[in-house]
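Q: What would this chain look like folded?
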Amino acid sequence: MQECCEIIGHHGTTQDIAKKIMETSFVSDPRKIGWLGTGNYFYDDDPLMAKKYSLKRFKHSISCVLECRIVIPKELEFDVTDPKSDDTSLFHKTRKKLIEELIKKNRLNLTTRNSNDFDGKIYNFICNNSTFAP
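A: My prediction, written as structure tokens:
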């Protein structure tokens, strides 16, 4: 049996978007790179934080929080919550290497709106170029 990580995630959004998600599931726009890379963001077992996010992000819409059971196979788990973990170390080593080698050679476009987007591109690079890619 495959070992998995299971969490209850809370996604803050609007009522209209929540209805679309319920009909079609979550869809990620690969052009949108967030703080932790491309994807859908959840608060780990914290509906209040998801609600606060949706109220701040969607001020002129009806706020909504979706509760989702998320199952991640261990081999696809990339956990950087522990500053001393192997995954966190991999992130920082990769980030440093990309800055030193690829950016200086103009072989990688890491133009970003802010520093969070830069780190999001690093997460995407790791996930697309390692064993974490599905």
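The helical segments are 15-24, 47-57, 86-103, 115-128.
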